User: Which sequence fits this backbone?
């Protein structure tokens, strides 16, 4: 298969890049990036400024995302987590992709008053309208794994999460912390098929092949 990947330098994306490199089912990957990256010959780096120039895509993987702190404003955040996500999905569709896999967030809802979750929900709804044969939306909770940047809020959140995780069962499971590698593996494993599915924590672990 021929894939395109946006967000490959982030926490989930870095694992996804590794897994795609190791997966013989994927013969080539167009890798969207703003900067030069050192990748194997399987990958062709495409500048984000040329996102509309993708060609021959069968599966699109989107792990794009930023934070309010990194973006600096609501407008800048919206441009990445909404506009750029949708632009990438449209480009994949125009390049022939019939399968698209999107990382969103637990609680995403286009009608909520929470800005972050509203943006995520609006992006989901817009991509549903593009008509992919296969659309997988993953809604993980707090991501666990080695980040390249340290976020104080997340460090505190992870400590709290580790303390309360054992108490979170049933309906609360979707709020438990989840490993970024698990999300990346689920993205690849669920890419082939038909129909639209939304996966929260338990379904993500199942798609990744983890016993739970």
Assistant:
């Amino acid at each position: 298969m021929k894939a395109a990947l946006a967000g490959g330098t982030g926490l989930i994306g870095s694992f996804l890049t590794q897994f795609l490199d190791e997966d013989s089912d994927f013969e080539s990957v167009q890798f969207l990036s703003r900067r030069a990256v050192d990748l194997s010959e399987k990958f062709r780096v495409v500048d984000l400024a040329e996102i509309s120039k993708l060609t021959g895509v069968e599966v699109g993987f989107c792990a794009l995302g930023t934070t309010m702190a990194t973006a600096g404003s609501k407008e800048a955040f919206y441009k990445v987590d909404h506009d750029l996500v949708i632009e990438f999905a449209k480009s994949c569709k125009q390049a022939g992709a019939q399968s698209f896999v999107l990382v969103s967030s637990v609680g995403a809802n286009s009608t909520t008053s929470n800005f972050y979750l509203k943006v995520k929900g609006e992006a989901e709804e817009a991509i549903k309208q593009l008509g992919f044969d296969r659309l997988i939306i993953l809604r993980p909770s707090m991501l666990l794994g080695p980040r390249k940047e340290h976020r104080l809020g997340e460090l505190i959140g992870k400590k709290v999460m580790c303390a309360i995780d054992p108490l979170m069962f049933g309906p609360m499971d979707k709020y438990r912390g989840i490993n970024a590698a698990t999300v990346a593996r689920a993205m690849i494993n669920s890419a082939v098929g038909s129909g639209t599915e939304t996966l929260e924590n338990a379904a993500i672990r199942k798609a990744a092949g983890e016993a739970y």
